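Observation: inputs received (chain + pyridoxal-5'-phosphate).
Thought: call the complex predictor directly.
Action: predict_structure
Action Input:
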Amino acid sequence: MRVYLDNNATTPVLPEVFDAMRPYFGERFGNASSIHSHGQETLAAVEQARESVAELLHCRASEVVFTSGGTEADNLAIAGLTQPGDHIITSTIEHHAVLHACRHAEESGCEVAHLPVDRFGLVDPDDVKCALRSNTKLISIMMANNETGALQPLEEIGKIAAEAGVLFHTDAVQAAGKVAIDVSRIGCHALSISGHKMHAPQGMGALYVRKGTHLRPLFYGGSHDRSRRAGTENVPGIAALGKAAELAIGGFGRGDDKKICALRDRLEQGILAQVEDAAVNGASAPRVPNTSNVYFDHIDGEAMVIALDLKGLAVSTGAACSSGAIEPSHVLIAMGLTPDRARASLRFSLGKQTTPEEIDFALALVPDTVARLRELSPVYSKQTLRI
Ligand code: PLP
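Observation:
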């Protein structure tokens, strides 16, 4: 048996999503800009997908810009909404797609403030208010953290942005499809999503841009997507994202999120009941239903990932993009964990396809593997001897 609990890294494409994109690799190959019937057929698919994504985000279809993924959406928002001399407020726990886009903005003449988080991984809206300056142009705070799943107090931050007349972007890559999103409740001007975190393929995403918000494009070329994103549309990817959005909406109606949450909670409780010196990082924060980040003191997270993988369970030590890096997770460090504890943390992330049997499988493996690795750990044996 192989069990995949690394859905925050990427999710499998659902069969319905694959079926939705298949015709656009074959008989429906037209360029959506062509005026003949081949083009009109694909244009209709693009516009239908735009409607579906808009329904998921509770915005107008014309406010959806298709991108090559979450990274492009984040970069488009940050580079497209600011210019040299502007001040940007972001947080220390953002994904590198935001952190490095902000670093680039800084190198280009912007000033960037990085807000801290508390031990639950949450930004304090008062800190946002205090960081505002006369030249603050943009606040970029993520909706759900990719490592802990912590949901940030976006509505409060949105109100602060509105009162200050500042633009507000949120990276909702790890929230889309997991929790309901309503851009007007959040009060944001831009919001990023990524297909492959919600059962559509990799290399597909979207940026919501509120009507009337001036956005400079990243690329120059054709007038695709109302001149906000030049380049011939990735029609199969767009059709897939539209289908994934429809399935996510249907899933909320059926209570899929509650089922996933119940499985996640069973996993956490089962692990904590069997393993000592372990706890959930940021357990008390409001979280997306699929994510659990657990520290197991005196183990090495990378060794644990490899040991579990050999037995058929795929999990992760933190952000997939920095997997393999020796540096402890910047998110867990920002929450106040020691580097050792951050390195001893594992992320379990469930998907729509996760079953109760798979959770049982994980529960049968994890405690034994922790015990075996701790037996091999000189630090742990010394501690045990002392006691
Ligand atoms: N933002 C967050 C919070 C993410 O978790 C990721 C991917 O891990 C990204 C942005 C980047 O998205 P993509 O992989 O689609 O470029």
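Thought: report the result.
Final Answer: The chain has a mean pLDDT of 95. Residues 69-71, 74, 95, 97, 142, 146, 171, 173-174, 194, 196, 205, 320-321 surround pyridoxal-5'-phosphate (CB under 6 Å).
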